[in-house]
User: Fold these one by one.
Assistant:
Number 1:
Amino acid sequence: MKPTAHFLTQLLRYSVLTTLALLFLAPLIIMLVGSLKADARVLVEAGTLAAFLPDEASLDNYADVFRRSDFLRFFFNSVLITSAIVISGLLVNSLAGYAFARLQWRGRDLLFNLVLALMILPFEAIAVPLFYGVSMLGLRDTYFAQIAPFIANAFSIYLFYSFFIGLPKEFEEAARLDGADTLRIFFTIIVPNSKPVFASVAILSFLTWWGSYLWPLMVTIGPSVRPLPVAITGFFTLPPLLWGDILAFGVMMVAPVLVVFIIFQRWFVRGVTASAIKG
Amino acid sequence: MRARFGDQTSTALMLAIPALLGLTLFILLPFLTALALSFTNLRLGSPLPVEWVGLEQFRRIFSDADFLRALANNLLFAAVVVPLQTALALALALLLNQGLRGATAFRTLFFMPVVFPMSLVAVIWTLVYAPGPNGMMNALLEQVSFGYWEARDFLRDPVLALPAIMLLSIWQGSGYQMVILLAGLQNIPQELYEGAALDGAGHRQQLLHVTLPQLRNPLIFVMLVTTILAFRLFDQVQIMTRGGPDNATTTVMYETVQAIFTRRQVGRACAMAVVFFLLVLTITWLQRRLVRQEREVA
């Protein structure tokens, strides 16, 4: 290809990418800039270039969020619920994945096929009966109802299984000859050699449950155990409609995730990709 | 044999039982309950005795105009969003796979909306769709149409409300598809392109005869996931339009939640959940078949 033609192709590619990137970014810039503006100006300036320029920026809206809502409570709830699901999920599902991948036992294949079959069931298909059960047992508006149902996860078990089955056999054999029991082998040999799959599962389940909306909307009644995704819509419909405050709420809700994402982005991409290639 | 099995069975069960117990209690049992309850007239807090009504709930939901509209909306949503989003993601992945400098930064940008909770996305886009000429989307459309666009209230417009929700769903989801397709592109052996180039194939022919066939399985996968997401559509609708105006944006999940939440009709909601499950099952089955066919050919 001629140098000028090559240059033009490159230029074209960059302009397409830049235009798309700006369109992708616009809603996020509006959120950030709007959160720093006086409430009345957010909507008025949304359609102008001023929407992207934070002149006279102030943090008043952020102060308002803490004054008008129990933001810290909601944030704590989200952190508690999500980390409880992710951490206990890592333990429970990796142990099961290990049993299916590396141990010989009766009923293994039958049970594993059942786990595979359960992977097809989206949560939405069982939300109604689960809600009925939780209501009958008087467990609505509890942390328990928001954590326990999601710890065991068929897809996580499958991801662990796929990773463990690829590890070399020699891994356990030496340790077994030394008389180490299965649990010890798992924690001292398997886990340290399986960091990628633990990272993938952690990131995938974190993203799923940090943003989960339908279930907490159904089971929470008051603000006490309500997580952020439901809380922001409550704040959104709380009169008067103050866009600056709402956007400040949004920024604070997503900032921790964005920071973690920017730092570990290689792992985020790898985690998401792993779910596709394995699935 | 027996001795070899026997020696690990108890350990294996010990390791697997917490997960198996969780799956049984919170997935298998509720699912079987939904199946059973969909044949009853159970209502929460109703004084009437629970009766076995056979297929009555299914007959009712399939003669319910709201539910049929919801099904049609889900189908329309899938029919528009799946091809558009996949095409956009494919274009992005192809552009980012050219070895451009700064490709990683662009990848980060396009992937960023994926880490945003959908409820927050819905709130931000409600501002984007604000009515009146000052609304961001209205102003943008006015600019690009050289003043021909007249400001509309997107979310209260029976024609525009569903497309508006489609657009933000594409914005949030294409980054996810893009990274999967990008990984697929990077797995294509370079020799295939070299061979094609030797045979005199140009860029377009390489794309048609090397890239797309090699990308078949990742493409089928992302389309499957997006189709299922289209049938799970709920958050955006609940937050932005409550299914309105005039059911223009109602969905199967929205109707299901209405049935159990506002009308407390457990039996009816369970029947809807069963229909939803059958839809997902059909889509998954289709995908498996498509992938298998390809393997048989290869």
Number 2:
Amino acid sequence: MNGGQDLGGMMGFGPIRPEPGEPVFHSEWERRVFALTLAMARPGGWNIDQSRFARESLDPGRYLTSTYYEIWLAGLERLLAERGLVTAEELTTGRPLGAKLPVPAILEAPAVEPTLAKGAPTSRPADQPARFAIGTPVRARLLNPRGHTRLPRYVRGRPGVVMDDHGFHVLPDAHAAGQGEAPERLYTVAFKASDLWGEAADPTVSVSVDAWESYLEPRGEAA
Amino acid sequence: MTTPQAAAHNHGHDHDHGSSLSPIEARVRALETILTEKGYVDPAALDRLIETYETRIGPRNGARVVARAWHDPDYRKRLLADATAAIAELGFTGRQGEHMVAVANTAEVHNLVVCTLCSCYPWPVLGLPPVWYKSAPYRSRAVLDPRSILAEFGLILPPGKAIRVWDSTAEIRYLVLPERPAGTEGWSEERLAPLVTRDSMIGTGLALDPADAP
């Protein structure tokens, strides 16, 4: 979706502001939001793409004026409410009121380390040949889906070149919509800055995104 | 997203329980209480998650990878060919590092990593990202005007040097392999590792000069 999260190319945010000491967390509530978000994925039964979609579904004005963990908290509350795991009344009163719903499993402390070490690989066996060979000129399709996508606005409709082929990966657009993994081939596609930003762009700069096959279309002219 | 206004901005519900908790502290505490009492979370698991990323996993892991690549040409080849496997040789695997790619800086090309859509970052080798990496100024401008970003970090590249920006839009996680500093010939991995800064592995910095070694 064209939400507040799709920031590439926006202006006016001012300078980078590194923090003295760069604390991993700034307060106890940030620690708890981080850990609750990681721990609730298993009982909640949602995947990383659904988590991302919950965060980017925030009103853009709110997204852009919230801190990072405020966004995480809002996303977690949304995921919990959507599944009835926590009701709006419970969030308001701060007390458990309804019954515990059956959940697939919870994350127990001894499982934390093996769960993190295993991660959640998104690669899947390839069951189709590559449509685009490395070096092929392609164009990012002009798409504006209402659901989740990982094709940023600044490359849509722009010409690029396939630089790498990562095999099949879970497609976030389908995964976030609860339509299964729908794996597709994933490519790295590089764009000249001038093809993204116009002739005034720095000629020494190129930018790549990782794009699933359905994000791309062939283009006739040479790269 | 890191402005003081934003930090002070109250998005939450009011919890007027007469406590000294801020609205967001009260909101998070209430949520944790509900989830714990309903049996959805194990509080000990939360503590373990926090401890892992606050104290155990951080950029010293990535520095070991880079130092080994500088020291061992065969390891460098393996790292550039299959970074996930090469990094796993040092024991760094798992969440947000399942599919790693290492990109090498050279005399001709400087690499810079960003996630314009959220905060994708290679956790097993760099830990959790700093606030600036997740914030709007960096995410918006890294793809539009990377040279201005580097300048803000004090890094002025030669005008002709190419800049390659990697926007982490999928589950591939990128680690920049910085150039080995001159004057470190014959150094051991252990001596090289402290020269590898966190920023040099994102691309917003270079490895330290031996004269500046900690």
